[in-house]
Design goal:
This protein has 318 residues and is α/β, with parallel strands linked by helices. The chain contains twelve helices and eleven strands. Helices cover 45% and strands 11% of the residues.
Length: 318
């Protein structure tokens, strides 16, 4: 198998694009796709101050690395869920990347707030860990973004994540989420930051190849709570379809993006939390209810790794 660009030995076949590429040309191809996605969907514009939600996995560390290579210098945020070795190793990988990129990373430890890991927090409020985790991460990441002057929150969701979520929303006709899977969710009244997904059109397999070929040291283990996630089942089904009809996932998501222009987002009256001002439905946001449930009144403190000896205005390192 020869590289379609340079004729040397190819290292990856991309059936969805009916092509094969060597390592250098694949890295160029993937970074160019991210760059095109950013410009086409106005994910980051001139003057924006982006920050990346990092987990230590291949997608978030890769998007962080790519953005800095493409000339979008971005800092990072990590929410340490307090899940033993998994969380500790994730933090090591993240601080290594922050040092490599010479960027700051803000770290919030769930145990510092609740004196419990996310699984125990979830048990106490009779939710599954992913539900409590999503709630805490959404809140904390938005708060750091707003409080520290960043205006775009970047996540590492890839094509497989988006296709699986879309399939789930369609299967159960979850109307309230169905039209919210755009690569860019606009900010709301200065309370909710803009959220964007530059890897929207890059598959899981492509991102794993990119991370390995670019020498990105990421945590291979998945979060121990991801095994039960329904999305893994949907990803398996979509992979089978992709196997027999390459390009299915891309078509699914691209078709959705066309539809989204005509789709209607269900409108509910949004209010602001009477305690903290976070946008919510009702008097109080879920995070404030959670803090109350644990009788917590103190604010949140963030460690800053890689920030003390590094100038946040420093130019990117390539
Ligand atoms: S981190 Fe959190 Fe995921 Fe772990 S607890 Fe579930 S949601 S699986 S992205
Ligand atoms: Zn609140």
């Amino acid at each position: 198998m020869k590289c379609r660009v340079c004729g040397q030995e190819a290292c990856i076949g991309l059936r969805a694009y009916n092509t094969a590429l060597c390592a250098d040309d694949f890295i160029f191809f993937l970074e160019k796709r991210v760059s095109t996605t950013i410009r086409k969907y106005h994910l980051i514009d001139a003057g924006d101050t982006p920050i990346v939600a990092v987990s230590g996995g291949k997608d978030s560390l890769s998007v962080w690395h790519i953005l800095n290579r493409l000339g979008y210098p971005a800092d990072g945020i990590y929410v340490d869920l307090g899940i033993g070795d998994y969380s500790r190793t994730s933090l090591v990988k993240i601080t290594q990347m922050a040092e490599k990129l010479q960027r700051k990373v803000y770290v919030l430890h769930v145990r510092d707030i609740f004196e419990k890991g996310i699984d125990e927090v979830a048990r106490a409020i009779r939710r599954v860990p992913c539900s409590a985790c999503g709630m805490v991460k959404r809140y904390v990441m938005n708060k750091i973004c707003i409080d520290r002057g960043y205006n775009v929150l970047i996540t590492g969701h890839n094509l497989d994540d988006e296709a699986a979520a879309l399939l789930g929303n369609l299967l159960y006709w979850k109307d309230e989420y169905l039209w919210k899977k755009s690569p860019s969710l606009e900010s709301k009244d200065g309370h909710l930051s803009k959220k964007v997904k530059p890897l929207f059109l890059c598959s899981e397999r492509e991102m794993a190849a990119y991370a390995v070929l670019s020498g990105i040291d990421y945590i291979y283990e998945e979060c121990p709570f991801s095994v039960d996630a329904k999305s893994l089942e949907y990803k398996g089904i979509l992979n089978k379809l992709e196997e027999s009809s390459p390009g299915t996932k891309l078509q699914f998501i691209k078709g959705y993006l066309k539809k989204i222009k005509t789709g209607k987002e269900e409108k509910r009256d949004m209010a602001y939390c009477e305690t903290c001002g976070y946008p919510c439905y009702g008097d109080k946001c879920n995070m404030c209810r959670l803090l109350e449930r644990f009788h917590i009144e103190k604010g949140m403190d963030f460690d800053e790794y890689g920030g003390s000896s590094l100038d946040s205005n420093q130019t990117m390192v390539t």
